[in-house]
Amino acid sequence: MSRIDDLVAAMTLDEKIGQLTMISLGAETIVTGPGATREPSIAELREGRLGSVLNLVGRDRIHALQKIAVEDTRLGIPLLFALDVIHGYRTCFPVPLGETAAFRPDLWEKTARFAAEEATEDALALTFTPMLDLARDPRWGRIVEGPGEDPHVGAVYARAKVRGFQTDDLARPDALAATAKHFVAYGAVTAGRDYASVDISERTLHEVYLPAFRAAVDAGCAAIMPAFVDLAGRPMSGDRALLTDLVRSTWGFEGIHVSDYDAVGELVAHGVAGDMVEAAALALNAGMDLDMMSPAYPQGLKTALERGLTDLATLDATVRRVLALKERLGLFDAPFGRGDPARPSARSRAERRALAREAAAASMVLLDNCDAILPLAATGGPIALIGPFAEAAFDMMGPWYGLGDQEETIDLAQGLRAAFRDREILVAAGVERDGDDVSGIAAAVAVAAQSDVVLLAVGEPAGLSGEAASRVRPGLTGRQAELARAVVATGRPVVVLLTCGRPLIEPWLYDAAAATLVLWYPGGEAGHAVGDLLAGRRSPSGRLPVSWPRDVGQIPLHYGERPTGRPFLDGEHFTTRYIDSPNDPQFPFGAGLGYGSIDIGKPRPATDRLIAGESLTVAIDLAHAGGMACETPIFVFLHDRVASTSRPVLELKHFEVVGLMPGETRTLTVTLPPAAFACLGPDLEPRIEPGLFDVLVGPSADRRTLKGAVVEVGTAPVA
User: Fold this and answer.
1) Which residues pair with 460 in a beta bridge?
2) CA–CA separation, 650 vs 151, rounded Å?
3) Distance from the Cα of residue 228 to its chain's centroid
4) Of 86, 156, 443, 648, which has the fewest beta carbons less than 10 angstroms from its beta carbon?
5) Across residues 623-651, what is the average pLDDT?
6) Which homologous superfamily is 359-554 in?
7) Is it true that domain 596-714 has CATH number 2.60.40.10?
């Protein structure tokens, strides 16, 4: 028998349930509820009634508990230690939505690798990321944690993050097990309200929300976290059809399902379980392996077995999966391998800070740059830095910042003073980030009047972004809009520096500003990265991973709509349109500018007809068209003109960042695999249907900027 079989055969019922129980230690409780008040004792650990721990940090503390687990318990089964390492551990990188704006899978993988190295040096073995919830509604606060609106981007992001965290060997002492979350369609909550119900079509589920999770499974992710929500009345924590039938049986997932915080117990509140006993049985039968911080498994599973609501075979299979992950992580053979003080740090502090600076700069998006006001000259009159985010180091880190230290975070004022040593930087907050005090506006206006240019540092506090931070009107908070109007009224040129974790809907401000630079929450090197861009040391290269609405009434909004029988026609009344607003977002998916420009030529497919199942090679001629050396993502879309089900007007199939020097030309060659031409048929199974496909390339999803060619996909050999 294997080690795992031997252990399962030797375990008592309490020990088996203990392996499925995850509790929080060492961190402030973030929710209240039946699971939040548990205070597990060392006696529970010694009795084998505890298998996993989250929120405990510090190598010495973790190793002390691990020593008890492996030396003082009957079977010596090691503990699994986990933490939300979302966008860095000690080194703080940009939030995921911001980092996605770089459109660089190499960068996504590298920041995950650096974070994993830091976390495992502190003895952690599991992280609850990447978050793969696509979101098309910026009212939902957790849009900040995910990869935006597009399923192809989400899939590429998933693969990069899983590789970065886990490497190719989970037993490595610097490998951090990744958890793909929140399965599935959490980003589609009703009205953008966190934890609310989700009700979408099966087609939308399979075409939009599942692909990123399938990519994570194919990349070997160790764990999946089901979402808090229900999908059409089926709470994810108890949905066997998805957790087991789809993910395990169809996709071949071999890892564990770990519940979100108290989510198993919340099956009672969902109304699908009458008590914790029924909740425990429902979750276990569905395939849930770890119960995080609810009383359901520890208090309900015994009784569920007695009542016949579940059986011992199901329990044993669940325990085996948990033990198998611990074995894959090398915890049985090297329980103290992560956090071994004899293992030197993989990176120097300078290397980590350099990557944080690179990631922050690459993620920032320049939306407007009227009269080429940016970059700013190295010499000249005073620069006014006005707004409540001018010296807000904490907000630069954003939500879920791990163990990032705001004392080490470079705020905007620090970064600008370092970047413009020969220009005076005048700083005034004007207002608070989220308060009603306007007494500082007059002083801020006076500072603006003394300057050559105003950098207006406004946005959304980090505490108002993320989980449980839905907003009915995602815009500037507090009295920032009043400050902005007063500064704009001075007539001085205004450059908006926007700190945010989602699109903030302030169309008047973006129209009035000379330039708008979206910073997101850029991390520990925020100020230096902003200084690099404003001083022209590098050209902005970030592009929007989400459509940016001009009004809350357009939400949900995304570029991949399906064609309608009455498409919008300018001047026609009975077409799909608003009567009081344009249909288009203020800024489309992929929008962004640099200090130089690249001309994107018409795509040149290698053939105008291919057989279903063949790849297509497309050549795209690129030429630097003026300004500085620059980088820009090139987007390749397809549109299937006629199919058995109506296809979106644009489907992203490839993106790639290309850099050109002044005067340089280049031909980019892209290969679209056969799967790029597939759609889900009426049975929701993938198929390639014959017909005409538009191959469209450009700098964004704005159809007015795209250049195209037509390719026919046939079922017969090409003559």
Assistant:
1) none
2) 12
3) 17
4) 443
5) 97
6) Glycoside hydrolase family 3 C-terminal domain (3.40.50.1700)
7) yes
Q: 521: closest CA among 99, 145, 95?
A: 95
Q: Say whether 655 sits in a helix, a strand or coil.
A: strand
Residue 570: its pLDDT value, please? 86
Q: For residue 437, is pLDDT > 80?
A: yes
Question: Which residue from 192, 684, 198 is spatially nearest to 468, judged by alpha carbons?
Answer: 192
CB-CB neighbours of 220 under 10 Å? 17
| Six token digits for residue 124 | 């952690």
| CB-CB contact of 409 with 397 (8 Å) | yes
Domains 3-328 and 596-714 share a fold: no
Q: Is 699 left (phi over 0), alpha (psi -120 to 50) or beta?
A: alpha
CA distance 285 to 263: 15
The answer to whether the CB of 525 falls within 8 A of the CB of 363 is: no
Q: 599-610: b or e for each residue (b if 16 or more CB lie within 10 Å)?
A: ebeebebeeeeb
The overall pTM is greater than 0.90 = yes
> Among this protein's residues, is 260 annotated catalytic?
yes
For 445-475, what is each residue's pLDDT tens digit?
999 999 999 999 999 999 999 999 999 999 9
- Give the span between the Cα atoms of 96 and 393, in whole angstroms: 18
> Hey, is 192 helix, strand or coil?
helix
Q: Which residues contact 2 (CB under 8 A, 6 or more apart)?
A: none
Gap between the Cα atoms of 499 and 494, Å rounded: 16
Please tell me whether residue 181 adopts helix, strand or coil conformation. strand
Strands 515-518 and 494-499: parallel
Domain ranges across the chain: 3-328, 359-554, 596-714
The pair of three-digit structure tokens given for residue 16, joined into one six-digit string = 């088996």
349-363 and 526-534 are packed helices; what angle lies between their axes, rounded to 10 degrees?
50
Residues whose CB falls within 8 Å of the CB of residue 288, separated by 6 or more in sequence, listed in order? 226, 237, 238, 243, 257, 258, 259, 264, 318
Active-site residue, from 133, 260, 368, 640:
260
Rounding to the nearest 10 degrees, give the CA dihedral for residues 91, 96, 102, 105. Answer: 90
SS (H, E, C) 417-452: HHHCCCCCEEEECCCCCCCCCCCCHHHHHHHHHCCC
- Mean pLDDT over all residues of the chain? 95
In whole angstroms, give the CA distance from residue 694 to residue 622: 20
Q: Are 637 and 602 within 8 A, CB to CB?
A: no
Cβ contact 99:543 at 8 Å: no
Model confidence pLDDT, tens digit, residues 52-79: 999 999 999 999 999 999 999 999 999 9
Backbone φ, ψ for residue 458 (5° rounding): -125, 175
Using DSSP, state whether 297 is helix, strand or coil: helix
Residue 511 has φ and ψ, to the nearest 5°, of: -70, -35
CA distance 78 to 497: 48
What is the Cα–Cα distance from 655 to 633, expressed in whole angstroms? 6
Q: Is residue 355 classed as helix, strand or coil in its secondary structure?
A: helix
Under DSSP, the state recorded for 250 is: I
Of 610, 655, 616, give the one whose Cα is nearest residue 634.
655
Looking at residue 37, what is its pLDDT?
Answer: 40
Q: Which residues pair with 670 in a beta bridge?
A: 618
CATH architecture of 3-328: Alpha-Beta Barrel (3.20)
Biggest CA-to-CA distance, the chain: 80
